Amino acid sequence: MSEPLAARARETLAGTPNAGIALLDIQSERPEAPPFDLCLSRFGVMFFDDPVTAFANIRAALRPGGRLACATWAEAARNPWFALPRAAATDRLGTPPQGDPDAPGPLAFRDPARVRRILEAAGWTGVSVTPEDTTLPLADLDEATALAAGIGPIPGMMRAMDGTDTDRAAILDTLRAALGPYAGPDGLRIPATINIVTATA
Question: What local confidence, expressed as pLDDT, does residue 77 receive?
Fold first, then answer.
């Protein structure tokens, strides 16, 4: 997924001074550049296999006093975008085997206390994790179910439970009905809660 996003970013930034795109694994590499002022991430930092090492390397790439600001998902109970697809898949396939809830994944940073421990272990100071209520705007139920078929709980549960194409269709029908109440004249508006994480290098 990273390379297509980087290619799109290069197109967008073409001709922009003082801007560049680099792909690297911050868990094992550091950017070859002067110290940065800010690290900003939207829903990307929850996927590190070794988050302490990754955040230590991010901190090392910032100037002293540089800032970290990240958006991460809060728990599924506060995010219907995760809770409803999981419920629809469970209704059809049964309860999947219990995995590690803190394993790399979209909800790995749902717990503010865990996030603080990780960042403090990586040397960050002034760590703050603030839940913010917001809304996810989607065009309509078709867009929502198409997205849910490819990302989120449904694909993983389909793999874990050996789901079939028939199962997928039934799950998406159930999800469509569950998301219906969020549809309105301006499209689908799904309530959500994200954690805003900030810290200082």
Answer: 95
What is the distance between the terminal CA atoms of the chain, rounded to a whole angstrom? 29
DSSP states along 66-110: EEEEEEEE--GGG-HHHHHHHHHHHHHH-PPPP--TTSSSTTTT-
Residue in the block written with tokens 């900030």: 198
The kind and range of the H/E element at 163 are none
Q: Rounded mean pLDDT of the chain?
A: 95
Contacts of 128 (CB under 8 A, 6+ apart): 196, 197, 198, 199
CB burial of 134-158 (b: ≥16 within 10 Å; e: otherwise) equals eeeebeebeebbeebbeebbbbebb
Position 19 scores a pLDDT of 85
Rounded average pLDDT over 31-43: 89
111-123 average pLDDT score: 98
Residue type, 198: T
User: Does residue 30 contact residue 55 with C-beta atoms inside 8 Å?
Assistant: no
Give the rounded percent of residues in the chain with a pLDDT score beyond 90. 87
Find the mean pLDDT for residues 54-69: 96
DSSP notation for 21-48: -----TTT---SSSPEEEEEEES-GGG-
Q: How far apart are CA 187 and CA 191, in angstroms?
A: 13
72, burial (CB in 10 Å: exposed 0-12, middle 13-18, buried 19+):
buried
